[in-house]
Amino acid sequence: MKNDNSKKDHTSSKTETQKIGRRDIIKGLAAVPVLGAFSYAWSRKNNIDQTFRKQMREVVNLTSQPVELAPSVKDGKPIRIGIIGFGIRGKQLMRAAGFPEPSWIDEQIKAHAENKQNTNYQSYMEQEQLNIEVNGVCDIFSVYSKEAAIAASNVNREGTVGKMGKEPRQYKTYLELLDAPDIDAVIIATPDHWHSPMAIEAAKRGKHVYCEKPVSWTVPETYELVKVVKEKGVVFQLGHQGRQTESYTKAREAIEKGILGKVNLIEVCTNRNDPNGAWVYDIHPDASPSTIDWTQFLGQAPYHEFSLERFFRWRCWWDYSTGLNGDLLTHEYDALNQIMGLGIPGSVASSGGIYFFKDGRTVPDVLQVVMEFPKHELSFLYSATLASGRSRGKVIMGHDASMEISDRLVIKAEAESTQYKKKIEEGLIDPNTPIYSFTPGKKGADGFATATEQYFASRGLLYTYRNGKRVDTTHLHIKEWLNCIRAGVQPSCNIDQAFQEGISAHMSTKALLENRRVFWDADKQEIV
Amino acid sequence: MSNKQMNKSYTNIQTFLLVTLRILLGWYFLYEGIVKIANPDWSSFGYLMDSQGAFAGIFHAMAAKTNVVAVVDMLNKWGLTLIGLGLILGFLTQYALFFGMLLLIMYYCSHPPLASVAYLMPQEGSYLWVNKTLLEILTMAVLMVFPTGHIAGFDRFITKWTKK
What value, to the nearest 5°, has the Cα angle with vertex A98 and ends A97 and A99? Predict the structure, then answer.
């Protein structure tokens, strides 16, 4: 580097005076004006952002606060529960109610030890205690019955080495459990063909019911259940835990405020691609005619000789199951019924087939259902496959905007919208970028996430996991049911909603099996 | 700062370019810090989780702990802001450069532009092994070897005061 004698002040030559002179002050503060320019640029940017947000809020005026969880009603007295069915879902429900199997706790602790990112155990232990006790369990497979009793005694949520409480009584039949005087309410998690018969008997005895979906296996029992629940005034909750999904609440608000304009088409889907998702569940090694009460399993189902496959993979046969209609269409339908108040469709058409899982099943693994809602002037299209996992979200299509709902919610304006025509012309609204997006749990969500936030959130990397807290919707759904029992009111997925769910699913099955369009006679309240 | 470093003398154009480079780099850091402070929802969580390459495990482990994420958030917000101010004002310039490089090295290790990885973060360019973070690290190293804070910056006062 060339020396420049004129730049003496740049060096710290010993001959230089160390006093701070005018030149020093000018050079020392030389860059300060840059901060002024920075402040100006920053305030300009802020102004532009604020103006944009204000204008957008005029377009999409949704509540800016996250949905608050309802506080627990605690009257001090524990609610005494009985559980019928301790298979895959029964175990999940018991966990959500606060009674995990000790072996499950062991697995979660081990999973965390192997992978620190797995915080399921920590999240689970933070789950609120619901002030209930389990006084009776019933499962017709003796291994499950014993497991249910152990889980019910796991009052401290411990692993296998932990201290358990008192084991509840194991009942051989559901009727004995329902007759028990120390049980106020029951959770039913049995195969589909047992839902309504058990719920009816429970309601007749004045027991409150949390029943897994679908509500019924036949049409007549659906009517009977509604009648008994209403007569007895018990608190009935159907197991669509999606009712507790925050983004559905936001979606409902968006629909009510007319942000989508006239909705004319709804598209919902199921996409699974693994044997478990296709109901090819494991067969327990200890299962045999001596450990399973096969006669009780059959119930109102047609006679069939003992079959381990049918017992563990019952969803694959119409004899016990409602197929994709009852298992998965109902989740999608109930979500939209919650968001839009659809009610029962005017007509349903359906088609599908067994195209991939040729394992002797009688229910389709690929299914399409088209429901028409003349009252709302819209079509509802359900499309399902159990042999391809390509993700297709729930989409609600309106003339002015469309909304895609998953864990998040994204609304995009329509390029040809009437409502937003002026704003699109002014350049305020870009049909290619969301006019609103909602991510559950985000503080003060105003729906204007940055591009980076949107990328992370769409892949589940934001907020839902923040603070290590992921709230289990099944837990919330059970909690709502218990709160309603304590408060003497009906929950969100009450018997009326359950009736609409059940009838819609039955119409879909009927349309498929009878290969015709099936109609709902609203006056006679009958499927025709 | 050693006397050896400070004894360097530059031509006008050299001084001008080095100081300008320092200020622009400072501006860049300062804005990255300020936007994070201004956004109550900003968190390093997503970025940490998006880590790839040999060091990904360390960053994922950091993301798994809420209190660690809180510290990382704080260090990023205020670290970027203070480094930015230091570079613009020429205040404790060598320290600002040192900590700036440290932050950037962490970013580089967390998101190395390897041939085999794809990131969630949208990128506006194409990078293989060398990315902007690496160039920034090198730029800061150059500025460290050719210091200017004592020429145009608050460091000029510090130099004078400490010499008294």
Answer: 105
